[in-house]
# Entry
Amino acid sequence: MRSFAIGVDLGGTNLRIAAVEDSGRLLQSLSTATEVARGRDLVLAEMALSIRELARQFGSTHKLAGIGVGIPGIIDLSSGTLHSAANLPGWSNYPVRAELEKRLGVPVLLENDANCAALGEKWIGAGKEVDDLCMITLGTGVGGGFVIAGKPWHGLIGMAGEIGHMTVFPDGRLCGCGNYGCLEQYASATAIRRMASEAIAGGQAQGLARCMDSDPAFSARTVFQCAVRGEATALKIFSTAGHALGIALASLINALNFPLYVIGGGMSKAWEVFSPALLDELHKRSIVFRAGESAAGSPKSTTVVPARLGGDAGLMGAARLPMIARSSWNFCSLAV
Ligand SMILES: [Zn+2]
# Structure
């Protein structure tokens, strides 16, 4: 009998839950209508209900390996408490694991969402062939995660992977974290929008301004579409993002010498317009990257690629958690 696990991706706006076979096959996914903003208790009740539903549905044909939950915040993994979560109002200092285990009667594993995405890509995405990888997630902000020997790397206080707050321009823009010139200020969707709006306000970007006029949301996606059409200012904005990413990645490659670096998140769809600047910086700045270049295509070369799983990486990684946990409660039975 095959086993399966239930993964939960608790996002800032949506809650997604999936039953995933140990082969990596997605058995079923549910996207609840619950808006996370409607409150913690409602979300937890909905989560527990959907988990039970999936456990019931697949429990007769598969063994349940466990439940993994990806959360966008800093988690104390020993106590299962969510320390802080900027996009989940009311969840800070909340004992998420204990509350879920109380409702379900079985052990639950928590993990930071960026680490889940890295784990998902390692399992069935861009990183299937490697043991170690680094993933940078470009979304509203910039997140990161390391998978070492097949498992997420947490660091001393669970904060490893804050790649978005690496300094790329020492005298650059002030970041919300208190530092100046963080990667997040140049390579997130928020940064793309800001750079576009600054260029338009400066009066030197009429082509970009015409593109953005058609988009009331003023989204990074529209700046990207404008760049794909060859508009110079939009291309320059993505080139800035690529340079910033390249500077951060060069340091990571020099420090880690991992075989694989995966660029994910919504912004990774713009790979074609930011990757030339990124690769140019790697070549210029990273001795380790250059050493691998002479072995291009061989197992000794450093690979930087866009993610493969898109928005599913975090969900699949959350489901993977119980499968790689060394614990005695594997193949738990959820009372349904
Ligand atoms: Zn910062």
